[in-house]
């Protein structure tokens, strides 16, 4: 019996052999190649190859060898010890508990501090390694769209389809996005609002074995341009400031290096603030940097907006200093997309070692000082 089905939107753009692996895993690659050579598998009535990229809506002809393909029989040992379902393993429920928003294309989670986004040397637990728990009904594993530093908490986007991944990545590359971070700095920036313009370059040779790499302000040819908007939301005397930061570019450790370059390092950021990042009293000895919100263009033309609550240690600090952890004000000039009325997405699902530096805050080795240019807020 010959069957004919339409390519679903979730499979748009993938290779034909990958489509078979998703929907007909019992068809071997050798058999598929044979069927394609004979013209028994066709796309819209035409011959195709294994590396042909399919398009949503196309009709695919499936011969009886595919329709009636069966899985190979398991050996006695395999039947004795069936593989556990991915969702049944110990860590699989933890990410689901941190979902802020979910629909057919994307999931937004509130990443906790201390959990790495991706694996690395000595890391056994990270978001990328736990994404099987968020696959649900989809044929493919979800994939990361961007990343956050290990000790930074907050909004993290995860694409559920290849189309969503490419679309959201394009929005990030085209800067059709607004990401706002909250930080607690030691000291108060001289200008209450500004744009920090300082190129960044990698600087090695740190740590016990000289393998600890960090970023530094530089005017070398290989330095990459970096811009960060910032606004002082509130202060606790002259010792601490609640700063909102919106990165225009997306360089490694950008906000951390830029705020330290002003002489106001983030509390708990000993990598870039040295002893000047040390807290006092009831303020936790942890990095106070949180990805508060995101507003990004979606592939379907709408916008995705999500906000993450402060992690426990920052929430305690905010209450200690008398700051409002539920503040929803927007301190930055509106971007083009924000001048239009964009529909707010309603929730579809509710569900390393630190090294102390003797360098004074804001005085890391640099060939060029960071500059901060003030801007006025637009009245609403």
Outline the fold blueprint.
Blueprint: E1 3-6, H1 16-23, H2 29-38, E2 42-43, E3 59-62, H3 64-67, H4 76-80, E4 99-102, E5 106-111, E6 143-144, E7 153-159, H5 162-173, E8 177-186, E9 193-197, E10 200-206, E11 212-217, E12 227-236, E13 240-247, H6 254-261, H7 270-273, E14 289-297, E15 303-307, H8 312-321, E16 371-373
Keywords:
8 helices; single chain; elongated; Structural Genomics Hypothetical 15.5 Kd Protein In mrcA-pckA Intergenic Region, Chain A; alpha+beta; about 375 residues; Pseudouridine synthase; 11-stranded mixed sheet; about 15% helix
Kindly describe this structure.
There is one protein chain. With 380 residues, the chain is an alpha+beta fold. Among the domains are: 3-67, RNA-binding S4 domain (Structural Genomics Hypothetical 15.5 Kd Protein In mrcA-pckA Intergenic Region, Chain A, Roll); 175-373, Pseudouridine synthase, CATH 3.30.2350. The protein is built from eight helices and 16 strands. The longest helix is centred in the middle third of the chain and has 12 residues, at 162-173. It starts with a strand and ends in a 7-residue tail after the last strand. Mean pLDDT is 82; it is low at 74-93, 341-368 and 376-380.
Instruction: Supply the helix-strand structural class.
Output: alpha+beta
In total, the number of strands is 16
> Treating each run of at least 4 consecutive H or I residues as one helix, how many helices?
8
CATH class of the domain at 175-373: Alpha Beta
Give, in order, the helices and strands.
EHHEEHHEEEEHEEEEEEHHEEHE
Tell me the span between the first and last alpha carbons: 65 Å
Relevant CATH superfamily of the domain at 175-373? Pseudouridine synthase
What would the CATH topology of the domain at 175-373 be?
A: Pseudouridine synthase
User: Which overall shape is indicated by the principal axes computed on the Cα atoms?
Assistant: elongated
The major sheet is characterized as:
11 strands, mixed
Low-pLDDT runs: 74-93, 341-368, 376-380
C-alpha Rg, in Å? 25 Å
Mean pLDDT: 82
Helical fraction equals 10-25%
CATH architecture of the domain at 175-373: 2-Layer Sandwich
Percent of sequence in beta strands: 15-25%
